[in-house]
Amino acid sequence: MRFPKVLRTCSRSVRIGEEVVPYRVEWRRVKYPRLEFKTGNLLIILPPTYKSEISLLEEKKPWILEKYRIIKECLEKAGGSFCLFGEPFQVKKGNGGMIDFKKREIVYNPKNRAQLQKIRRILRDKLRARILEKIKEFGGITGLHPSKIFIKRQRSKWASCSSSGNLSFNLRLVFLPPRLIDYVVLHELLHLKFSRHNRDFWREVEKFFPDYRDLENDLLSYWFSTAKSGAWLFESVSSSNPPAFPTPDLKVP
Ligand SMILES: [Zn+2]
């Protein structure tokens, strides 16, 4: 017999400081409780043995407030300027399917798939060039070299590292400022040596990016802000999936 995934559910809200945070509780057949910010909304998942979410909520209030504020701010900003590699670009409808990096302009016909694919290809090539350059640079220092590099349209992560030593990067990285792209590259590269986010891993990260905590927060914030402003570029791959937090390759804890 198969059990339903979600046993019971309810929707409530909690006041934390000046914010009223709405949330949903789901009782599932899981071992441990967890909190997620999928699609920007707080979801609390509880094992059947938990009667209520109150004590968990109490304990996690600072974490919830921090994430809630970041996400709220991002969603307010979203839909504003459209950025590529950290620079604002104008998106114009017209025939062409081209990107002018000097004029910071993209011209394409939304009804023409080939043009959209061409734009993606241009962006993919530019992103690949940046990633390869950084892999060479960081690889020279760390002695770490991936087997293969992939650039994909991933749903829920900025990047990932496979057990066979391949690194995959999300095409959505094209929306980030170059330094943040570089951070993601280093982060994944270090996973070739440290598979987990343990102290040794962060100590190594810190040597290259002392402000990595801020960068991790930026990654979360960009995930939401680019979900709206960059959605047209990704069409079928819906962008409102779980954000990568607290690291480029992890879903919300
Ligand atoms: Zn990681």
Describe this structure in words.
The protein is of the alpha/beta class. Among the domains are: 63 residues, no CATH class; 111 residues, Metalloproteases ("zincins"), catalytic domain (Zincin-like, 2-Layer Sandwich), CATH 3.30.2010. 39% of the residues lie in helices and 23% in strands. It has six helices and eleven strands. Helix 1 crosses helix 5. The radius of gyration is 20 Å and the shape is globular. Zinc ion binds next to loops. The site of zinc ion has 6 residues, from loops.
The amount of helix comes to 25-40%
Uncertain segments are 236-246
Shape: globular
Class inferred from helices and paired strands: alpha/beta
| Beta-strand content estimate | 15-25%
- Overall residue-averaged pLDDT value: 84
The CATH architecture of one domain comes to 2-Layer Sandwich
Task: Give the helix/strand layout.
Elements lengths: L5 E11 L2 E10 L5 E3 L5 E5 L7 H24 L4 E3 L2 E7 L4 E3 L4 E4 L4 H30 L6 E4 L6 E3 L5 E4 L7 H13 L8 H10 L3 H18 L1 H4 L19
Parallel strand pairs: 2-4, 6-8, 9-11
Antiparallel strand pairs: 1-2, 3-4, 5-6, 7-8, 10-11
Helix pairs in contact: 1-5, 2-3, 3-4
The structure holds zinc ion.
Structure at a glance:
This protein is an alpha/beta fold and 253 residues long. 39% of the residues lie in helices and 23% in strands.
